[in-house]
Amino acid sequence: MSGKPRLHYVNARGRMEPIRWLLAAAGVEFEEAFLETKDDLKKLQTNGDLLFQQVPMVEIDGMKMVQTRAILNYIAGKYNLYGKDLKERALIDMYVEGLADLNELISSNFFQPADKKEEHLASVMDKAANRYFPVYEKVLKGHGQDFLVGNKLSRADVQLLETILLVEESKPDILAKFPLLQSFKAKTSNIPNIKKFLQPGSQRKQPIQEKDIPRLMQIFH
Ligand code: IBG
């Protein structure tokens, strides 16, 4: 065995993308096994590889880990991206859960009926601009440091950058009102491991397209 973590998921962002981001930011090489059909998922299920019969699943350190949050917590702890004490970890958890909520809202746009998508996306972008992003701008302004917690890169920064880029795909001017998030984006995008992940040809995935939805539905439903 190569010793690299092995990620089991479809070849799309979905729930695996923050895991890819965190590993990449930590400078950890990983392998991916893509599910192409429902049978691929069934195989993992019947082998007993999936605790709750669901992916993402990550083989790491002799474990077959499931549950996105548990996987992220493990990677963040292992690679020192989870704060220096319980209080820093509490802040990181709050910031990350806010980002997870916003990400869920964005993902849910795919499952809206065609005639409701535009209106739904507008309301999600309004929440990004007026509920979520102001929080991170305020945190950065409050302590005047480059990173969200402890003056040091943490999983919260990695997940914030991922989310900024995601929101910009739908609303390119989202950062116009947030000068500190603009410089946060510039600085974190330049961290060598992250910079590498942002280059074409990395394991970062492209946005899910309408045309991919039937294929994903066929596997997961
Ligand atoms: N709480 C679990 C986690 O966070 O890991 C949920 C996992 C989950 O919903 N997995 C789905 C699954 O395996 C695939 S992600 N379904 C098969 C089954 O039998 O339940 C689906 C998804 C996509 C994009 I693609 C956005 C959100 C979810």
Describe the structure.
The chain has 221 residues and is an alpha+beta fold. The chain has two domains: 6-79, Glutaredoxin, CATH 3.40.30; 86-191, Glutathione S-transferase Yfyf (Class Pi), Chain A, domain 2 (Up-down Bundle), CATH 1.20.1050.10. 55% of the residues lie in helices and 7% in strands. It has helices spanning 17-25, 38-46, 68-78, 86-108, 117-143, 155-170, 179-189, 192-198, 213-220; strands at residues 6-9, 31-34, 57-60, 63-66. A four-stranded mixed beta sheet has the order 2-1-3-4, with helices on one face. Helix 4 (86-108) packs parallel to helix 6 (155-170). The radius of gyration is 18 Å and the shape is globular. The protein binds gamma-glutamyl[S-(2-iodobenzyl)cysteinyl]glycine. Gamma-glutamyl[S-(2-iodobenzyl)cysteinyl]glycine is lined by residues 12, 14-15, 53-56, 66-68, 107, 216, 220. Belongs to the GST superfamily. Alpha family. GO terms for molecular function: glutathione transferase activity. Residues 3-83 form the GST N-terminal domain.
Set out the fold topology:
Blueprint: E1 6-9, H1 17-25, E2 31-34, H2 38-46, E3 57-60, E4 63-66, H3 68-78, H4 86-108, H5 117-143, H6 155-170, H7 179-189, H8 192-198, H9 213-220
Parallel strand pairs: 1-2
Antiparallel strand pairs: 1-3, 3-4
Helix pairs in contact: 1-3, 1-6, 4-5, 4-6, 6-7
Bound molecules: gamma-glutamyl[S-(2-iodobenzyl)cysteinyl]glycine.
Mean pLDDT over the full residue set: 96
User: What share of residues are in beta strands?
Assistant: 5-15%
Query: How are the strands ordered across the major sheet?
Result: 2-1-3-4
Number of helical segments with 4 or more residues: 9
> Can you count the beta strands?
4
**What portion of residues is helical?**
40-55%
CATH fold group of the largest domain? Glutathione S-transferase Yfyf (Class Pi), Chain A, domain 2
What would CATH call the class of the largest domain? Mainly Alpha
The radius of gyration is 18 Å
Give the structural class.
Answer: alpha+beta
Weakly predicted, low-confidence segments? none
Distance between the termini: 32 Å
Tell me the count of domains: 2
**CATH level-two architecture of the largest domain:** Up-down Bundle
The largest pleated sheet is described as: 4 strands, mixed
Order of helices and strands: EHEHEEHHHHHHH
